[in-house]
Design goal:
Helices cover 76% and strands 1% of the residues. By secondary structure, it is mostly helical. The chain has one domain: Farnesyl Diphosphate Synthase, CATH 1.10.600.10. A hairpin with a 2-residue loop joins strand 1 and strand 2. The chain is globular and about 65 Å long.
Length: 373
């Protein structure tokens, strides 16, 4: 745990340094652009840095002959470690960009207990009594913020990869990042498509379609891709990277299944979003597909009628939550989480990875899947 905290501190320090550098650049263009680095800093002040941690431990799983405590104490003297910290921080910038865009598409009001980026800009417009639509200004500004964060994630990754001695490792890591970016983007599209086009699908296809969204929108980029990115930067072999993927994908699925449960039943104090937010947004998640498959026609009609209504009252949210619980879908999802975690941990058995990394990855598997409701 102490090492985990030191790693988070290093990533936070790098993000702060990077944003200060970009703030200096933007201030040279126009004072008004400070709003972009202010919003970025505010968004990045939260989060658990899971992607950064998995990136580091993917690297350490391969470069396990190095004493991480020594490296952490002498960051500047070890280019490989500073490179992986840059990559880990780049993943957090990429994640922040994805959150900004996701909140626009979902019309979300909050993120991490604060106003979502587009609401932040919208509020600024109203406070200054500017001309035109506050909502339109908020959306447009947040889109640009997300694009800026996406570009900055590339810059920071490139900074790290440029210091690697092995050009092949840098090239492989860059390809992994490209693949991750493509899959998250199309996964996001499949998510919004499912919200509007689910009636076109056969009932038997709703669960696999929901699982497809879960895999590409979140599971792969949350854990599998960061692990592979770190391992590739360390020059990992096919066997090593494959073992980390075999661990990372099922754990990423378990991670997102837990997130889906929190989206329906989570405490706002834990999630930073209103209770039942996924119900108002109309998310056609695995838990919804399971509930619909298990419920009688009348209850299914109730779900289909209420799901996606942004004006749902607390009573209606409670009714939907009770209906989903009565279907047995919650227990089924908990079983799926447990099986996925077991599959992930089994993939580490006899894997050609450092012993300390395997132990830490087992600990992280518990941390990312046992978040409180």
């Amino acid at each position: 745990m102490p090492e985990r905290l030191r790693l988070v501190d290093l990533v936070n320090a790098r993000l702060e340094q990077f944003l200060e550098q970009r703030a200096s650049h933007l201030s040279g263009i126009a004072d008004e652009l400070a709003v972009f680095t202010d919003a970025s800093s505010e968004l990045l002040s939260g989060g658990k840095r899971f992607r950064a941690l998995f990136c580091y431990w993917g690297w350490h799983a391969v470069a396990g002959t190095v004493n991480p405590d020594d490296l952490l104490a002498e960051l500047d003297a070890h280019p490989d470690l500073s490179s992986i910290i840059d990559a880990a921080a780049a993943l957090e910038l990429f994640h922040a960009a994805a959150l900004v865009h996701d909140d626009i598409m979902d019309n979300s009001d909050t993120r991490r207990g604060m106003p979502a980026a587009h609401r932040r800009f919208e509020r600024e417009h109203r406070e200054h009594h500017w001309a035109g639509s506050a909502a339109g200004y908020g959306t447009s500004s947040a889109l640009l913020l997300g694009d800026l964060l996406l570009g900055w994630s590339d810059e920071l990754l490139d900074a790290g990869l440029s210091r690697l001695d092995d050009a092949d490792s840098a090239s492989a890591a860059r390809r992994e990042f490209h693949t991750m970016r493509t899959e998250v983007t199309v996964g996001q599209y499949l998510d919004i498509l499912e919200e509007v086009a689910w009636r076109d699908a056969d009932e038997a296809d709703l669960l696999p379609r929901a699982h497809r969204v879960l895999t590409y929108k979140s599971a792969k980029y949350s854990i599998e891709a960061p692990l592979a990115l770190g391992a590739l930067m360390a020059g990992g072999s096919l066997e090593q990277v494959s073992a980390l993927r075999a661990f990372g994908l099922p754990l990423g699925i378990a991670f997102q299944l837990r997130d889906d449960l929190l989206g329906v039943f989570g405490d706002p104090e834990v999630t930073g979003k209103p209770a039942g937010d996924d119900l108002r947004e109309g998310k056609r998640t695995v838990i919804i597909a399971l509930a619909r498959a298990a419920l009688p026609a009348g209850a299914v009609a109730l779900i289909d009628e209420l799901l996606g209504d942004a004006t749902l009252s607390e009573h209606q949210i409670a009714t939907l939550q009770a209906t989903i619980r009565d279907s047995g879908a919650v227990e089924t999802v908990e079983q799926m989480i447990a099986r996925s975690v077991a599959t992930a941990i089994a993939a580490l058995d006899d894997a050609p990875l450092s012993r300390s990394a395997r132990a830490e990855l087992v600990g992280l598997s518990d941390l990312v899947t046992r978040r409180a409701h």
